[in-house]
């Protein structure tokens, strides 16, 4: 069952990454509607997980709201897509998943933007009070953190994840804010799930995105299980963490987000389809040297590389490819 209560006050924003499904039976695709779309989102998530493994990511911070479904995909698909061990033979651990609501609309007027003629993004303009609240949000936890830790990010490899790259400002702002707030982190990197195309209008100078995730909307806030920041409501929350992070955390909805629930169920189903050989895995890039591509295709798809190549050659579309694959694997 979805964790969002109607009041929302006791809702832990970060708990919505877990696979809570009202129906464990097969879920219908109403958002991720086509085989082509599901295959593409699987490929993009595979690429992101590859980056996380390559960088030894301990903590992945996804930028709300639109990167939250990406976190669901990483969470659900990690045990299938990530190799079980690294090159040294050590078990590969899934990064700890966290969320922050940072965007260029919120901070652009204060920190600057990449297109500004003078200065660009300057994190030194961040109000000290906001920086202090962010540090409090990631303060060490007794019984969880080491005694010498200054924060939950002390000594950690941190990755900031945005869902789509257009100007790159949002992830760059988040990266610089976190680097200033947590110099104790071992390393902070940034990554994008999708590269969004940009089309410019020569007459007006306006830039528009040509590729966005299907859940993205500039008209509706629903569909991702969390809303915009709401400092008044978060400041009155029963959760001390929500109160502390009122400028940094998304606020839960007062009513259930049915669109978000549906998408989350579909992400769960996507992972189930991959496990049950109802969706063909196509490598996003190089997993070498951790896992040779031939071994990877056989491990995930249950077929050899020659069969995989033959399927790709005989299929004229992703839909036909999936059909041919499921017929072969039965």
Helix and strand string, N-terminal first?
A: HEHEHHEHEEEHHHHHH
Structural class: alpha/beta
How many domains make up the 3D coordinates? 2
The percent range for helix content is: 25-40%
CA-based gyration radius: 21 Å
Secondary structure tally, helices: 11
Largest sheet: 4 strands, parallel
| Strand-residue proportion | 5-15%
Tally of DSSP β-strands:
6
N- and C-termini, Cα separation? 32 Å
What labels describe this entry?
2 domains, four-stranded parallel β-sheet, 10% strand, disordered N terminus
What does this entry look like structurally?
The protein has 330 residues and is of the alpha/beta class. The chain has 2 domains: 13-279, no CATH class; 292-330, no CATH class. It has helices at 35-55, 68-81, 104-111, 128-137, 169-181, 231-235, 240-244, 258-275, 293-301, 305-314, 318-329, and strands at residues 59-63, 96-100, 157-165, 187-195, 198-200, 207-209. The chain has a 4-stranded parallel sheet, sandwiched between helices. The chain has a two-stranded antiparallel sheet with strand order 5-6. α1 packs across α2 (68-81) and α2 (68-81) packs parallel to α8 (258-275). It is globular.
């Amino acid at each position: 069952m979805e964790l969002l209560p109607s009041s929302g006050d006791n809702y832990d924003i970060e708990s919505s990454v877990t696979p809570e499904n009202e129906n464990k039976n097969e879920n219908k695709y109403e958002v991720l509607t086509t085989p082509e779309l599901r295959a593409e989102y699987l490929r993009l998530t595979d690429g992101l997980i590859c980056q996380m493994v390559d960088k030894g990511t301990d903590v992945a911070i996804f930028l709300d709201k639109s990167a939250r479904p990406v976190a669901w995909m990483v969470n659900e698909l990690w045990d299938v897509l990530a190799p079980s061990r690294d090159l040294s033979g050590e078990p590969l651990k899934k990064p700890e998943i966290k969320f922050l609501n940072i965007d260029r609309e919120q901070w652009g007027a204060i920190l600057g933007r990449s297109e500004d003629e003078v200065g660009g993004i300057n994190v030194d303009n961040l109000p000290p009070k906001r920086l202090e609240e962010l540090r409090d949000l990631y303060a060490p936890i007794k019984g969880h953190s080491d005694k010498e830790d200054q924060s939950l990010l002390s000594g950690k490899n941190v990755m900031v994840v945005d869902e789509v790259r257009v100007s790159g400002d949002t992830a760059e702002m988040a990266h610089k804010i976190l680097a200033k707030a947590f110099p104790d982190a071992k390393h902070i990197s940034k990554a994008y799930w999708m590269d969004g195309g940009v089309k410019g209008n020569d007459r007006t100078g306006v830039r528009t995105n040509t590729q966005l995730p299907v859940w993205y909307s500039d008209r509706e806030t629903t569909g991702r299980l969390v809303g915009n920041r709401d400092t008044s409501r978060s400041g009155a929350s029963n959760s001390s963490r929500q109160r502390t992070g009122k400028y940094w955390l998304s606020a839960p909805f007062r009513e259930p987000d049915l669109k978000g629930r549906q998408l989350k169920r579909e992400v769960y189903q996507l992972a189930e389809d991959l496990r049950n050989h109802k969706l063909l895995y196509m490598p996003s890039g190089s997993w070498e040297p951790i896992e040779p591509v031939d071994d990877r295709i056989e491990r995930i798809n249950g077929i050899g590389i020659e069969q995989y190549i033959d399927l790709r050659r005989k299929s004229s579309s992703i839909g036909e490819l999936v059909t041919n694959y499921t017929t072969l694997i039965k």
